[in-house]
Write a structure and sequence with these properties.
Number of strands: 8
Strand content: 5-15%
Helix content: 40-55%
Largest sheet: 8 strands, mixed
Order of helices and strands: EHEHEHEHEHEHHEHHHEH
Shape: elongated
CATH architecture of the largest domain: Alpha-Beta Complex
Radius of gyration: 24 Å
Strand order of the largest sheet: 7-5-6-4-1-2-3-8
Number of domains: 2
Structural class: alpha/beta
Number of helices: 11
């Protein structure tokens, strides 16, 4: 059985080789020696240090395959590039900084061997920065509300997934990729298991506020719930407006001298105009995605590959 380890790389020239070496050793200890590593350079802004290290690793090890993206596409799109080139019967998703530690693979495989199609490792005690933890909690809340994730399933960037799930997920061609949403279209046979979260081996998290917002934006692309909420809220406030108008008419009928005043009128105007524009913006977001889909905005652009077969290298753009 072949195992594919997929790792998006971003400013990881100092850590990625050690991560791969540790993973190779752990897989051998688990007697799962038939392994390939697919490393994706997500256009790291480090003067070429990351891609230079990845090329060096590919030259030294035939089991290391490298994809160099021409522009930064985000973690999930980089993972999609790796998934499309993975040949394994089981695909292992990991980070490049050592926090998703290879020593925890045995725990994940035990769960997979129970018959699950998708296994996530989750961290009871996270070692992320407060900013990333805050963003992760907000994203988890969004996922729970919008894509009907099982309540007992907790996700992370450390996962094992079977090939048939991967085969289904890679058919998605939209530019806003969210892997859990794609995986859940194929299977509900999912479990999460507690594992230890390690400190970063070096440096700081490459996650920015912009990237967290893009991830959240990708999540809402897999649900129509925001539109339903907008409709229900719109009906609610329309009803409130009608009731308020009736109250005003009744009070005016009872006391013809009563003046409600401009302040209340202006507040109502600002409130309802703000509400209207908020929902128009939400609808515009969906229409914008339809436009991008029609124009075939790529998930990623492959600049170069190393150690991939000729048939795989032909896929330069997706």
């Amino acid at each position: 059985m072949l195992y594919s380890v997929i790792i998006p790389c971003y400013r990881s020239s100092a850590t990625i080789e050690h991560v791969v070496d540790m993973t190779r050793e752990e897989m051998a200890r688990l007697k799962k020696e038939d392994v390939e590593f697919i490393l994706v350079n997500d256009c790291s802004p480090d003067e070429g240090k990351t891609i230079a290290k990845l090329r060096e690793m590919a030259e030294q090890h035939k089991d290391v395959k490298v994809i160099d993206l021409a522009m930064n596409s985000g973690q999930h799109n980089a993972l999609m590039a790796a998934l499309r080139h993975a040949k394994g019967d089981v695909i292992i998703g990991m980070d490049d900084d050592g926090q998703t530690h290879p020593s925890q693979l045995g725990t994940l495989f035990k769960a997979l061997e129970q018959g699950y199609d998708l296994v996530y490792g989750y961290y009871p005690n996270k070692k992320h920065s407060w900013f990333r933890n805050l963003g992760s909690r907000f994203n988890d809340l969004t996922v729970n509300l919008m894509i009907k994730k099982p309540k007992d399933v907790r996700t992370s960037s450390y996962f094992l997934v079977r090939k048939f799930v991967r085969d289904h997920a890679v058919q998605y061609e939209g530019s806003y990729t969210y892997l859990l949403g794609l995986f859940m279209r194929c299977t509900q046979n999912i479990i999460s298991v507690p594992i230890q979260h390690f400190e970063r081996e070096e440096g700081e998290s490459g996650y920015t506020f912009k990237q967290l917002i893009r991830l959240w934006s990708s999540v809402i692309g897999f649900s129509v719930i925001p539109l339903r909420v907008a409709s229900i809220t719109g009906f609610f406030f329309a009803g409130v407006g009608i009731l308020a108008a009736l109250v005003v008419l009744i009070r005016k009928f009872v006391d013809p001298t009563l003046s409600m005043g401009w302040p209340s009128l202006m507040c109502a105007i600002f409130f309802f105009f703000g509400l209207t524009f908020m929902f128009l913006g939400m609808i515009g977001e969906y229409l914008g995605r339809m436009f991008l889909g029609m124009n075939k905005e790529p998930q990623y652009v492959i600049k170069a590959t190393y150690n991939l077969s000729d048939s795989q290298e032909k896929e330069a753009v997706k």
